[in-house]
Each structure stands twice: as structure tokens, then as C-alpha cells.
Amino acid sequence: MRKNLKESFYESEIARFLESKENTTNIDWESSFFIWHRPTSNMDELTNLSEDLCKTMDEYIAQLIKLAEKLSELMCENLNLEKDYIKEAFSGSKGPSVGTKVAKYPQCPQPELVRGLREHTDAGGIILLLQDDQVPGLEFFKDGEWVEIPPSKNNTIFVNTGDQVEVLSNGRYKSTLHRVMADKNGSRLSIATFYNPAGDALISPAPKLLYPNHFRFQDYLKLYATTKFSDKGPRFELMKKTADGHQTLRV
């Protein structure tokens, strides 16, 4: 699979763009394909995958789904939400959507002219990355700087969170800007599995995580006067209920 991706890439339009030194700001030095696993699989349509590889992939994905579900439970615990909140929010009518992007970033003769993959955040939920164990390239943007992520040894899974986790967590978990740099000395393989919401899932911040809103400041001050030296959490919760019309503020 590595060889097929590499050979077809050097004959592609992307490689010709670099040879002619045309504008490469809108292309990625990447060859990839996508496999769907849930709610339905498309592996039968990929004729270049052997039966043994498909079987191994099914077993691998089953374990990754368990890992993603466990991670989602831990996130919910950290957010003080019910443990299945993210899983249920992702489920829609057919359960979460799971797919794998297999990408090859071939050895690049002029890495200063092109990105392996341009800067972006991931659209979905929890991303589980099995990356190359020798060739670097992945970088994350943190505190105003690009941080290099070294190759993963011993089949270590690298975890990233996407835009939908940021929305559901009301910004507590961020989807981080990242990119892949082209490399002059080697070809990098990336196998990223996405545990995403179903296409018909309705996404919104968990109500429990929202700050109170649409309240009158004078009402807040009345409550604050009697609770100033107490924790602000219960104060916010009471203001939520008041602003939503659930009860009348009494102090």
C-alpha cells in the first residue's frame, strides 16, 4: 500500500505543479484515500485491499472505537457531564460515524515550497492517529508557536480533538490548529481514524456547561450581595434557572 501511494503520487498533477514551480499555496504534498467503517463500511469497494488486511482493519477499528468511547467518557467526567453524553450527542439515528484516512506524504525535493498538509483544525470529534515511527512532519500550534510532534514509537496512538468536541464542551476542549510539513529525506505514513458525529446529529454546547445569559445585572447584584463570599458556581446555576424563566429569584 505504501508503494502504490508513492508511485501514483509522483505521476500526479500535484508533483507536476512543484516541478514547474507554479503556485503551490493551495495544494498539499499528500496522497490519500478514505475508508468508512460506521455506520456502514466501504472496504468491499476498495479492490486493492486484501482480505487479510480488511479483517485486520476491522479488528483494529473495533478496538479504536472502544478507545474513543473511553476517552469520551473521561472527557465527560472531567466536564461533570453524564458519562455517555458525548457518545449520545454523536449518535444521531445510526450511531457515531467512524472513518479512516490513510495518507502518504512522499519524499519532497523542495519542501520549502509546499506543505504536506496545510494548516487546519479537524471538523469532527475524536481523532486517533497512528503516525509514522521514523519520519517527522506533524506540527501543532500552541502558545503562538508551531510545536513539532516527534514520530510515534511502539505503535503509540496520538489523540486529537476536533471542532465538534469544542462546540459540545463550550470551548473547554479546543480543536487545535495543526499541519504536516513536507520532508526532503523521507516519506511519512499517517493513518488517522475519526470518531465523528453522525451526519444527522444535532450539535450544540452541553446546557450544563453554558454560562447564564439574558439576565439583568441588577438581579445578579442582588444575589451577589448575599453570596459574595461563597463559590460562584451555585450562583451561576441559580442565575441560569432565573434567566430561563424556571423560577423567580429570591434573596
What does this 3D model show about the protein?
The chain has 251 residues and is of the alpha+beta class. The protein has helices at 2-9, 13-19, 51-79, 85-91, 163-168, 217-227, 232-243; strands at residues 31-38, 97-105, 115-120, 126-131, 138-142, 145-148, 158-161, 178-181, 188-196. The chain has 2 domains: 2-196, B-lactam Antibiotic, Isopenicillin N Synthase, Chain (Jelly Rolls), CATH 2.60.120.330; 211-243, no CATH class. Helices cover 32% and strands 22% of the residues. The protein has a 5-stranded antiparallel β-sheet. Strand 5 (138-142) and strand 6 (145-148) form a beta hairpin. The longest helix is centred in the first third of the chain and has 29 residues, at 51-79.
Topology overview:
Blueprint: H1 2-9, H2 13-19, E1 31-38, H3 51-79, H4 85-91, E2 97-105, E3 115-120, E4 126-131, E5 138-142, E6 145-148, E7 158-161, H5 163-168, E8 178-181, E9 188-196, H6 217-227, H7 232-243
Antiparallel strand pairs: 1-2, 2-9, 3-8, 4-7, 4-9, 5-6, 5-8
What's the CATH superfamily of the largest domain, by name? B-lactam Antibiotic, Isopenicillin N Synthase, Chain
The residue-averaged pLDDT reads 89
CATH secondary-structure class of the largest domain: Mainly Beta
- The backbone outline, from C-alpha atoms, is elongated
Order of helices and strands: HHEHHEEEEEEHEEHH
**Biggest β-sheet description:** 5 strands, antiparallel
Helix content: 25-40%
Name of the CATH architecture of the largest domain: Sandwich
Proportion in β-strands: 15-25%
Q: Which fold name fills CATH's third level, the topology of the largest domain?
A: Jelly Rolls
Number of domains: 2
Distance between the termini: 69 Å
Rg over alpha carbons: 23 Å
Task: Tell me the quaternary state.
Answer: single chain
Overall strand count: 9
Q: Extract low-pLDDT stretches.
A: none
- Side by side, the strands of the main sheet go 1-2-9-4-7
Specify the structural class.
Answer: alpha+beta
Number of helices: 7
InterPro entries: IPNS-like_FE2OG_OXY, IPNS-like_sf, Oxoglu/Fe-dep_dioxygenase_dom, Plant_2OG-oxidoreductases
Organism: Liquidambar formosana (Formosan gum)
EC number: 1.14.17.4
Pfam family, one: 2OG-FeII_Oxy
